[in-house]
């Protein structure tokens, strides 16, 4: 039996915690599994490295950032291997390159293209526990790349898929996927099972418990994930293809919160064909990720347009909007907004789900500034100061604590 286990930043967030992980890994080994272990950097380490770079530059070169950031995961991988060797186990630490992970060429947000499993397989057949530094690979030119924040989850899923592992276990400081972030709503309930589809929405809408791209890849490769805690023995949550049969029973399965949102409001935009295309293509040229968009009906030849971007892209968005000075009366920017979302496959076949959310927020005096919906989610932009309250209100109105 081949198991891929991934331990996140909190789980390896200090020497004693790495020792705790080493003991857990040793136990799995003694129970007879072949193991590939993916590790994150110690918690806070990646942010610290980013701060170091920002001391010298506001806009450090992405190539150098990848060399810098990939070091955090290497430290943990080496330390875990040393700890395991000291416990009498054969273990080998590998960088992303040594583990055969090939990516495309985009620095700091690379996609995994292929994994050459030769080295991994030979280390496994030589009886080693293989420890892989997560979040990294190399591109065709041999340059180091990283996979985007939270990217060790993606490394784990990709390795599990490529090695056809029997299990892919992702360990963090929570013992599974909850109906919402248990740090915000202590009444949140742990789910035994969640479909890829719903998990992908939750992760994309801000539940950082799993990186969204890792869920996308798991769905594509059919990798079943089990999310567990490295601090307990509790059963975790299985993330796999929808079971189908109870799809219609659960209306809403979870609430996600994303505070990393900023809103741009444009007033008095000249209402002519092509204006939206111009604005949004210029934003796209700068790789600014647009999320929600609203445009009001036009009056007297002008219209109002609003959209949201990630908070760290607001400065670039401002620069772009300055080039449209002649086409609008005013632009304002609000960084204190949050996006709260309800997710559930049951919404496909029920009406009135969104209305319930809107009235629950209204009853609590929370104004909704923007709305977007899809078949299985409703997202609302609200004032950031009501973010946690909104999560709790919605959690209650859909009886997720029951
Ligand atoms: P790691 O560092 O191990 O990758 P993360 O910090 O990325 O772990 O993810 C775990 C955190 O995700 C939890 O501490 C929890 O606060 C948060 N979280 C957000 N939404 C959820 C949810 N629906 N279920 C469980 N945890 C959640
Ligand atoms: N260390 C990286 C991050 O903090 C990757 C990861 O932890 O998964 O984003
Ligand atoms: Mg994570």
Please provide a written account of the structure.
By secondary structure, this protein is of the alpha/beta class. It has 2 domains: 172 residues, 3-Layer(aba) Sandwich (Carbamate kinase); 144 residues, VC0802-like (2-Layer Sandwich). Helices cover 33% and strands 27% of the residues. The chain is built from 11 helices and 18 strands. An 8-stranded mixed beta sheet has the order 3-6-2-1-9-11-12-10, with helices on both faces. It has a 6-stranded antiparallel beta sheet with strand order 14-15-13-16-18-17. Strands 4-5 form a two-stranded antiparallel ribbon. A hairpin with a 5-residue loop joins strand 7 and strand 8. Helix 2 runs antiparallel to helix 3 and helix 6 packs antiparallel against helix 7. The protein starts with a strand and ends in a 5-residue tail after the last helix. The mean pLDDT is 95. The chain binds adenosine-5'-diphosphate, aspartic acid (ASP) and magnesium ion. The site of adenosine-5'-diphosphate (ADP) has 20 residues, from loops.
Features:
VC0802-like, binds aspartic acid, six-stranded antiparallel sheet, eight-stranded mixed sheet, 402 residues, Carbamate kinase, binds magnesium ion, single chain, binds adenosine-5'-diphosphate, alpha/beta
Q: How would you describe the shape? A: globular
Name of the CATH architecture of the largest domain: 3-Layer(aba) Sandwich
N→C terminal distance: 37 Å
Whole-number average pLDDT? 95
Residue stretches low in confidence (pLDDT < 50, at least 5 long) are none
The biggest beta sheet is recorded as: 8 strands, mixed
Q: How much beta, percentage-wise?
A: 25-35%
Strand order of the largest sheet: 3-6-2-1-9-11-12-10
Determine Rg (CA atoms, Å). Answer: 23 Å
CATH topology of the largest domain: Carbamate kinase
Number of strands: 18
The CATH fourth-level homologous superfamily of the largest domain: Acetylglutamate kinase-like
Q: Which CATH first-tier class of the largest domain would you pick?
A: Alpha Beta
Helical run tally: 11
* Structural class by helix and strand composition: alpha/beta
What binds here, in terms of ligands, is: adenosine-5'-diphosphate, aspartic acid, magnesium ion
What's the helical proportion of residues?
A: 25-40%
């Amino acid at each position: 039996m081949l198991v891929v286990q991934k331990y996140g930043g909190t789980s390896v967030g200090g020497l004693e915690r790495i020792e705790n992980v080493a003991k857990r890994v040793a136990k799995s080994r003694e129970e007879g599994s072949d193991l590939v272990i993916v590790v994150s950097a110690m918690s806070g380490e990646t942010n610290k490295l980013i701060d170091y770079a920002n001391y010298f530059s506001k806009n450090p070169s992405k190539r150098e950032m990848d060399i810098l950031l990939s070091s955090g995961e290497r430290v943990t991988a080496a330390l875990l291997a040393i700890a395991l060797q000291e416990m009498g186990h054969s273990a080998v630490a590998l960088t992303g390159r040594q583990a055969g992970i090939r990516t495309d060429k985009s620095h700091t947000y690379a996609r995994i293209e292929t994994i050459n499993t030769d080295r991994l397989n030979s280390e496994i057949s030589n009886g080693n526990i293989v420890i892989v530094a997560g979040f990294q690979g190399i591109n065709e030119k041999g340059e180091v790349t990283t996979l985007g924040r939270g990217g060790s989850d993606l490394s784990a899923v990709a390795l599990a898929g490529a090695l056809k592992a029997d299990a892919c276990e992702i360990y963090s400081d929570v013992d599974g996927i909850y109906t919402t972030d248990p740090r915000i709503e202590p009444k949140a309930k742990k789910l035994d099972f969640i479909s890829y589809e719903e998990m992908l929405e939750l992760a994309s809408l801000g539940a950082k418990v799993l990186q969204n791209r890792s869920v996308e890849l798991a769905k594509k490769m059919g990798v079943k994930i089990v999310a567990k805690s490295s601090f307990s023995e509790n059963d975790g949550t299985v993330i796999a293809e929808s079971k189908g049969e109870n799809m219609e029973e659960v209306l809403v399965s979870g609430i996600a919160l994303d505070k990393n949102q900023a809103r741009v409001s444009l007033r008095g935009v000249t209402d002519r064909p092509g204006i939206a295309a111009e604005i949004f293509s210029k934003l796209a040229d700068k790789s600014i990720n647009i999320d929600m968009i609203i445009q009001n009906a036009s009056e007297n030849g002008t219209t109002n347009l609003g959209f949201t971007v990630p908070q760290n892209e607001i400065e670039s968005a401002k620069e772009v909007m300055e080039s449209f000075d002649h086409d609008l009366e005013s632009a304002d920017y609000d960084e204190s907004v949050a996006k709260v979302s309800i997710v559930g496959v049951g919404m496909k076949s029920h009406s009135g789900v969104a209305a319930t959310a809107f009235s629950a927020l209204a009853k609590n005096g929370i104004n909704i500034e923007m709305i977007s919906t899809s078949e299985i989610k409703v997202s609302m932009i609200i004032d950031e100061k009501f973010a946690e309250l909104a999560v709790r209100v919605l959690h209650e109105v859909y009886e997720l604590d029951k």
